[in-house]
Structure prediction request, 712 residues.
Amino acid sequence: MDEVFAVIMAGGSGTRFWPLSRSAWPKQFLALAGGNESLLQQTVRRLAGVVPSNRVIVVTSEQHAQATREQLPDLPPDNVLAEPQGRNTAPCVAWAAAHVSARSAKAVMAVLPADPHIGDEPAYRKVLQQAIEAARDGGMVTIGVTPTRPETGYGYIEVGEPLGAGVRRVQHFFEKPDLPRAQRFLADGNFLWNSGMFFFRADVVLGEFERQLPDIYAFANECRKRLKTGPDLEFVRASYAGLTSISIDHGIMEKAGDLRVVPGSFGWYDIGSWTTAYELAPKDAQKNAVRAEVSLVESEGCYVRGEPGKLIALIGVHDLVVVDTEDALLIMPRDRAQDVRRVVEDLKAKKAKHFL
Amino acid sequence: MDEVFAVIMAGGSGTRFWPLSRSAWPKQFLALAGGNESLLQQTVRRLAGVVPSNRVIVVTSEQHAQATREQLPDLPPDNVLAEPQGRNTAPCVAWAAAHVSARSAKAVMAVLPADPHIGDEPAYRKVLQQAIEAARDGGMVTIGVTPTRPETGYGYIEVGEPLGAGVRRVQHFFEKPDLPRAQRFLADGNFLWNSGMFFFRADVVLGEFERQLPDIYAFANECRKRLKTGPDLEFVRASYAGLTSISIDHGIMEKAGDLRVVPGSFGWYDIGSWTTAYELAPKDAQKNAVRAEVSLVESEGCYVRGEPGKLIALIGVHDLVVVDTEDALLIMPRDRAQDVRRVVEDLKAKKAKHFL
Prediction:
């Protein structure tokens, strides 16, 4: 049986978790889902028993490579690939495919985002195994999550006919819907949330790149050749900026042949904002989610996050997000989480980069 | 002409400005009214031209004596009297009277709280001079502030017949009224706010102590005798705890003979809570009063106070008080300022004394 590699995409530099996430310390390094493990550490640990750590590859930015290696001391340092620029996810997957291919041409790659929350890990690992198996014969596989609400923040997958135990044909990918459409998707029963997890053999995905994104294929093929005799980093640095910037979803998956989906339910949550972090967090009787030293007087429904040794006192407030770090403090109603970017834009405009 | 001394009562240890005020750093040390001077420093500076600094006496607690001397480097260190315990204001005034009397038996004492805000300092100094003059012949004098609104947070003075230029008889002192009563006081036109500033000769107030509070008189008289030959501190430490604990208002002024009041208008404000601090502070177009590095998105009517180098971002909130210090943060609606004590009580109950 061919080997299995995990490719974790950890290129995020999002601003939605400001002020806890910073350009130098993005979301995947944060413990946003309870406990002390970062999202990235959880994503790697969850693979235990499925993919050994020497076959876990993490693609991140040059800026974050060092912190990534420090957060994942069990990984061989060379398994952390540092992108010289962000070029969306297609070049990232192709580069990782070159590395996998250089080690084992027909290995299955499990391409996983660094930052989802997964509530039921045993169920997740079972689905993961099914998806890996479904990719062994050359299929392009994704995992679809059975929806539990008319969520407008996720993409959807319409499923087609069964292809075997636990595997269905992908009928169509849909972008994030509006609410009426999301409600129809949920009622229909034939739609799954797109988890952004993809499974394919290295040779198969490289074949799709050759067909759909030839410039990226040429890049990956050159990397693969160079890796037979030495490092590819000099070549990557010289050529990465010129690659087509496109997502693996749009660039490859949506136009690939033989698309399959493994449906699953494993408490999957895309932690996309402070609102989601609040929803996932354990709460007290007043529905406050607290990760700080606090004194709360008649306050309800608040998400409070602080630093050790700092007291946060709330009197008579409700449904606020309060995130306090050493040099920045954010206060907003829980339903304004999408506007965190406006603070980030304001700070950029003020050239207050030390707060970003 | 006999000398004039100022006696500044700086014994406060209030909790209404937590977390900026602490047991080790109370309100009078804070710059609460704009600018960088503390309330205490402003109170002393305002006396310039009326009372020279070597005749300004500050009574504070032992705990705060050192900080008081540091905030007022122009005062002779011996002019800061350190109470071994808080015994309300009557013993404090009597002790100061002993010190004044030992230096000049018939000197006029201007007894002033450490922490009012005064918007019109020239007008204030004029009223101060009038009150001092009105005390020279043996009267007990207070300053009454012409009310501008039906304030329920202050005591009131009903004025009687004129006694000369700018001086009226005190008819009666009233405690803080309810709103209908405060409205009647305002409409009546014969009522003034009690500023808590008192003026009398040292010999006259000691005579009133002898008549009304003989234990405190005996204490003050013994201090006065000892001061002729040396310090009185050992005696004060041994006897202070046993003195009647009562305010100068209730213990002396209300039952004194020949009570006079000088009415005045000089932008007087008792900064009693964060709500008042907001009212006094300069505001931007969105009615935010900001003393911090901020990024404000659709936020109005907030009082924001932080430390240098710390960014405070508000999104979509209104009428909040946000006070951020190195080790404690307070967030509440502006109209909940009276509940700050509940946090302080909570912290006491939790034995989290380092935050107090």
Observations:
- The first strand of chain B starts at residue 4 and ends at 9.
